[in-house]
């Protein structure tokens, strides 16, 4: 009887441990939905942008360049997504800090320009989106619209 | 009648001029069709890959990573596409040459592994595709299937 | 008569199709003319510079270093051309924004120093020019003179 | 008298010393002549190549990409010139060594493919030429023709 009880407790304990070892992640299906929402917003505004999405490991899962977008945005969109992911915050946060006088932050390997947003699920970061192509404020509008339309914000 | 004939000749002349100063290119719509065909082939084989497509200038226009694909393939898919674009030939051509004894070619900045194909239109290179994720022979099968399904091969 | 008219319409239709699928580009002959104009301006001012020209894909098509030019200008001229191409605007636009307080833009991989200009044809970007060697204002004067002398500005 | 003689000897000695502190170099005029010769040979063979020329410091002085040349040749032409300059020998020398079994040489940062030649004057290296675009043997033919036509070989 004692053994059974012990086994039962141990079983629960192991189960809890396993639960604690998983975390939410971003799959291509959801990344595609986010990108579609971003593209739809860009088209509705007649803007051309690059859409870049990273996953829960900070690795590129999807990139799309709309026709006519400036070539430099291929790299910038990825860099914005990288900064948003690596620091779990909108790239605008760094932009505002630097504009507000924290010029020393330009020595960090970050891209402090609006248009990058982290993607959270249940309080856990599962990826990020980076938009580049129009003004950085407009890039930010697209990024936000994409996450809101897909329930990630 | 003379006017119509003159107009017709003028039209041909302008057409020739435009032909001589313009060249074909790859847009997002066609890149998406190619990527969809690649993904469809990969799914049908139960393979997970990264699909990377460059445009007529060798610049990234689209990238997709299917769920479960090894992270290293993000870079490899792009490098295969880069080599195929930059040298206007399948990456397998370099793989075969090196395997055949041309070991000195490994000193060039190329990715000599099957899975990268140039994309031509009217004899002009308009981009390339790079696939990575399964064996390089399987990567090559996907790349070829994608171009054939979309009329680019 | 009907046949001629049909042919004419067909000609127009084909022409439109070709227009929609092709775009202008920069060849070595025109790049050479631009470089010659830049060099002529530099010589007339007794300035020594590096002249760098990229094509419609952002790839180097021509580079010349005039005797006595500082070695660092080899890279700077190319970087200015890269920034002008990638963002479809004069590098001076970024210089002015940063000088005007947009310090956060220094976190982008751009070269925000006057002397780089995009090259357009029919509203489409077909390349860029980057000049480096004298003061950035003088570099800019050469770049502008080169494009104006060749009808690209 | 003794003083005059001493002064004379001293003067000769100083003169010799000054002579020993200069060395031949490659200017843009001669680099252009070499490039023109290379291009003329390429045109006569109906080949498209990138021509790259480095100066006595190993720094790029001239680059030209002929229309239709594969984009990868922009980098390869410069790398061949770099290897030829840095090791004062034709890149083919390394290619032959590696083909002959010295595979370990592929671990060096060299480009061991024919088409790169050092440029000498009076036994001193004053630069190098790198050609890329056709087969490496054909690249080598152009490089050699260019130096022979201009008296540098």
From TrEMBL, chains A, B, C, D:
Entry superkingdom: Bacteria
Classification via InterPro entries: GlcG_carb_metab_protein, PduO/GlcC-like, PduO/GlcC-like_sf
Entry keyword Signal: yes
Leader sequence residues: 1-20
UniProt xrefs under Pfam families: HbpS-like
Keyword terms: Signal
SUPFAM superfamilies: GlcG-like
PANTHER family xref list: PROTEIN GLCG, SLR1406 PROTEIN
Protein name: Heme-binding protein
Organism: Belliella aquatica
The gene coding this protein: glcG
């Amino acid at each position: 009887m004692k053994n059974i009880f012990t086994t039962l407790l141990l079983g629960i304990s192991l189960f809890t441990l396993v639960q604690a070892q998983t975390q939410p992640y971003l799959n291509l299906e959801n990344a595609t939905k986010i990108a579609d929402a971003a593209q739809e917003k860009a088209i509705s505004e007649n803007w051309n942008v690059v859409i870049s999405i990273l996953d829960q490991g900070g690795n590129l899962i999807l990139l799309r360049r709309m026709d006519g977008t400036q070539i430099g945005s291929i790299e910038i969109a990825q860099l914005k997504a990288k900064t948003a992911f690596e620091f779990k915050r909108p790239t605008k946060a760094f932009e505002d800090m630097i504009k507000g006088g924290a010029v020393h932050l330009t020595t960090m390997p970050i891209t402090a320009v609006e248009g990058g947003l982290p993607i959270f699920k249940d309080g856990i970061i599962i990826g990020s989106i980076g938009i580049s192509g129009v003004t950085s404020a407009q890039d930010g509008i697209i990024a936000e619209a994409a996450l809101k339309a897909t329930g990630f914000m």
